From TrEMBL:
One Gene Ontology biological process: tricarboxylic acid cycle
Domain CoA-binding per the UniProt entry, residue ranges: 4-100
Protein's organism: Apibacter adventoris
Keywords of the record: Ligase, Nucleotide-binding, Tricarboxylic acid cycle
Summary of the function given for this chain in its UniProt record: Succinyl-CoA synthetase functions in the citric acid cycle (TCA), coupling the hydrolysis of succinyl-CoA to the synthesis of either ATP or GTP and thus represents the only step of substrate-level phosphorylation in the TCA. The alpha subunit of the enzyme binds the substrates coenzyme A and phosphate, while succinate binding and nucleotide specificity is provided by the beta subunit.
Protein's name in the database: Succinate--CoA ligase [ADP-forming] subunit alpha
Residues the entry annotates as binding CoA: T17, G18, K19, E20, K43, I96, T97, E98
Length: 290
């Protein structure tokens, strides 16, 4: 089984005819994802990659029954694209765009509260349900079907974790790249909850970073549940200097509890199997699932 996206998801690409949208739409189609069309304002009525192009998301929802959108739109226009998708009735919005101004995301978060949709990202690799649907930029060939879910702030470490899990003899149910910006649509806890409630996910790999409280909030929540599904955790940025942004805009140590060491200690105290290196993820999954 999978969460958020599956073989029945009807997916559109916002920014469909642009360079990035075109390249990744081709990759998603090759993976077997049901791409039903795309949106590029001003190019409605044309055909791209053998699929219809629409001027608006509302039109795409009406004509091809789209329920999921992936956004490859420049930062200046990405916030409007997210809000347009939510308003049009899209249920899962995946925003790949990096560099969206924080002020824009404050508006987006406030706006989409009024709609029944889940936002993944921005500045994320997307979502992949192995052998079913790839909505984003993940290298699909790494992901084999199985019962290990992944929640990650880091795109690259999502792929690394999946590769190790598969090489350890297991597979992936759904991997959710939640994004590394200071303001994102779905938190670590919310993504973990989706996987904990999925009957076909037996174990979760949670990959976090320095900065913010998402991982510690998720760890305390996990402990409060008394959950029986094991969680393997890793925090990137163990050698990062205080006060300097590292990679993602949200990865910055601002206080004592923002450090990798502090987060790892809290996670361990909350019953999460913490690894010191991403190289240990595969073996730890194998030992936990036995």
């Amino acid at each position: 089984m999978s969460v958020l996206v599956n073989k029945n998801s009807k997916i559109i690409v916002q920014g469909f005819t642009g360079k990035e949208g075109t390249f990744h739409a081709e990759q998603m189609i090759k993976f077997g994802t049901q791409i039903v069309g795309g949106v590029t304002p001003g190019k409605g009525g044309s055909i791209h990659l053998k699929r219809p192009v629409f001027n608006t998301v509302k039109e795409a929802v009406a004509k091809v029954k789209a329920d999921t959108s992936v956004i490859f739109v420049p930062p200046a226009f990405a916030a409007d694209s997210i809000m347009e998708a939510a308003e049009a009735g899209i249920k899962v919005v995946v925003c790949i765009t990096e560099g969206i101004p924080i002020q824009d995301m404050v508006k987006v978060k406030n706006y989409i509260k009024n709609y029944n949709c889940i936002l993944i990202g921005p500045n994320c690799p997307g979502i992949i349900s192995a052998d079913e649907a790839k909505v984003g930029i993940m290298p699909g060939f790494i992901f084999k079907k199985g019962k290990v879910g992944i929640v990650s702030k880091s795109g690259t470490l999502t792929y690394e974790a999946a590769d190790q899990v598969v090489k350890a003899g297991y597979g992936i149910s759904t991997a959710i790249g939640i994004g590394g910006d200071p303001i994102i649509g779905t938190t670590t806890q919310q993504a973990m909850e989706l996987l904990l409630n999925d009957s076909q996910t037996d174990c979760i790999v949670m990959i976090g970073e320095i900065g913010g409280q998402l991982e510690t909030d998720a760890a305390h929540w996990y402990k409060s549940l008394g959950a029986t599904k094991p969680v393997i955790g890793f925090i990137a940025g163990q050698t990062a200097p205080k006060g300097r942004t590292m990679g993602h805009a949200g990865a910055i140590v601002g206080g004592e509890n923002d450090t990798a060491q502090a987060k790892m200690k809290i996670m361990s105290e909350c019953g999460i199997h913490v690894v010191n290196s991403p190289a240990e993820i595969g073996n730890t999954v194998a030992s936990v699932l036995g």
